[in-house]
Design brief:
The complex is a heterodimer of chains A (295) and B (340).
Chain A (H helix, E strand, L loop, with lengths): L1 H4 L6 H29 L1 H16 L2 H16 L2 H16 L3 H31 L1 H16 L2 H12 L3 H25 L3 H9 L4 H30 L1 H5 L7 H10 L2 H29 L9
Chain B lengths: L6 E10 L7 H5 L4 H8 L2 E11 L4 E5 L6 H8 L7 E6 L2 E2 L5 H10 L1 E4 L11 H5 L1 H6 L3 H14 L15 H14 L4 E5 L7 H18 L2 E6 L2 H7 L2 E6 L2 E6 L1 H6 L4 H7 L4 H4 L2 H4 L11 E3 L4 H11 L3 E5 L5 E6 H8 L3
Parallel strand pairs in B: 3-8, 3-9, 6-7, 7-8, 11-12
Antiparallel strand pairs in B: 1-2, 1-4, 4-5, 9-10, 12-13
Helix pairs in contact in B: 7-8, 15-16
Classes of the chains: A mainly alpha (295), B alpha/beta (340).
Chain lengths: 295, 340
Amino acid sequence: MAWFNEFPQLDDGFLRDLKKVIDDGFRSFTRSYGDAIEGLFEPLRVFLIWSENLLTNTPWPIILAVVAAIAWFASRSLKIVIASIVTLCLIGIFGMWADTMKTISMILTSTLLAIAVGLPIGILMSRSDRVQAFVNPILDVMQTMPSFVYLIPVVMLLGIGKVPGLIAVVIYAIPPMIRLTNLGIRQVDGEVLEAADAFGSSKWQRLVKAELPLALPTIMAGINQTIMMALAMVVIASMIGVQGLGQPVLKAISNQYFTLGLFNGLAIVGIAILFDRISQAWGHRLQKHRGGSHV
Amino acid sequence: MSDPIGIEIRNLFKIFGPRGATFIDAVNRGMTKQELNEKHRHVLGLRDINISIPAGAIQVVMGLSGSGKSTLIRHINRLIDPTAGQILVEGQDVVKMAPDELRAFRRHKTAMVFQKFALLPHRTVLDNVGYGLEVQGLDSAARNKVSMRWIERVGLKGFEAKYPAQLSGGMQQRVGLARALANDAPILLMDEAYSALDPLIRYDMQTVLLDLQKEVRKTIVFITHDLDEALRIGDRIALLRDGSVIQQGTGQDIVLHPADDYVTNFVQHVDRGKVVQVGSVMEPLNGTTPEATIGADVTLTEALRDMMGRGVQALGVEDAQGRPVGQLSLKRAISVSAGA
């Protein structure tokens, strides 16, 4: 009755061998192709370094002015502009300016990458139920798999540094971008698309003149979610060498520096709110034609 | 302005479902819509439709919801592919067109107006009206010039910078109409274009369409479920029921000689006086010379008003060349108007 009390499992020796075979296989794959793959990501690394240098080397008053300008043009709301300035000033006064700039650079780059990759995938998904059925489970895995698990192969392939950190962040943050692009396009009013077809639109014209603009509110929600999720990953990404606000938090965890952790945590919250409010206000302004009373 | 062109619909079938084509023979042999649905889980959309629409005419396709009228109009620009049949426009079969040809056909030969307007909400009135021209590749200056002309023509001058959500339903449909007309296509497809409008505005828009038709002379296919609208607008009417044409002809034909009980039922509440023309119900000349005459294409209501005004019991009827062709008595006019 041994099989009844204890779940019958594969032989220990077999399991050990299986793991060893897979590990060895991946390790030899890493050894032979690691450099080539790293070369593939070289432009990404160059861009990351460039944007980080740009943000950290620009004098703080200019950064403040640029943020204020962006906040104004995106929202046209004085409240949001002032809140953004105050948040950044507080971060600076408490000595976290440089780390914050590094984090913002990381978030911006990973969001851009997530949009560049996620938008086309989302469009493809909306075109075909088969693609959707294939991509959806992959997105489920990406969202639920503990991030530490996919950090292992990424680090094995690319080592420690910015690029593997960026890839880990993008893997974690891209699913809402893809899902909401797909959803947004699928929800576009069928009669409007019929009209686009009836006037002889090509597939491309239909996409850029009707589908994407009509799906834009949903796509914007996806971008907003992607930014928020990318920010949530900064601490974990700092474990593999991404600089910024995550590293002091990591230090605080291992040394039990409560205040250090709290300050940096609050700084992350601060820029999260800042990003969120600015991007949402922009999304609303893009949709201003939807409201409007009858004349 | 492009010359009008006719449309020839021949033996058109549409059976919705994965294996529609396999049931064509069965449907041809008389399988009903209900039978097809219950036994084979396929939906009969259209059954053996034959309509020939002359160039420059307004063809109304009329029926209740589910009769297949919206399905039918979508075959003309092939938003829906038929299961079998032909749609000939200028000798070319729309059904057989390759994607490129079809796109060119939709751009240059047809324009469509939709029941729920189907405007692009993120574009202004001006950019909505110019959509068809933009798709054709016209630059914005040329496009806006044409668009502005049509915006003025449908009475929306001053609203070109507004967004659709800022306009009322009637105004939105004017935008829809202007968008279709800006294309300068010889065929205009109107899918229940006025059904979503309230009665006064609907009447107004019918007038706009009839006035425009005098100028631009297009071949118009107009879908509606409203008999009064059909009779007012249509040069010819096709009545659709369960995917089949049960009668087609002029409004008068249908009102005076309904093909079956269904049509009889359908037309019994119509104000016949406004539809029926004197020429189709007049009596032969009987030797007496009436005091006054009217044209054969005048409606009974107008003839009655004329008789009342003159205080006469009968009118002579003459054709377009002024030759006497018959006479109409007051009694006859009243009894036909009353549906007796």
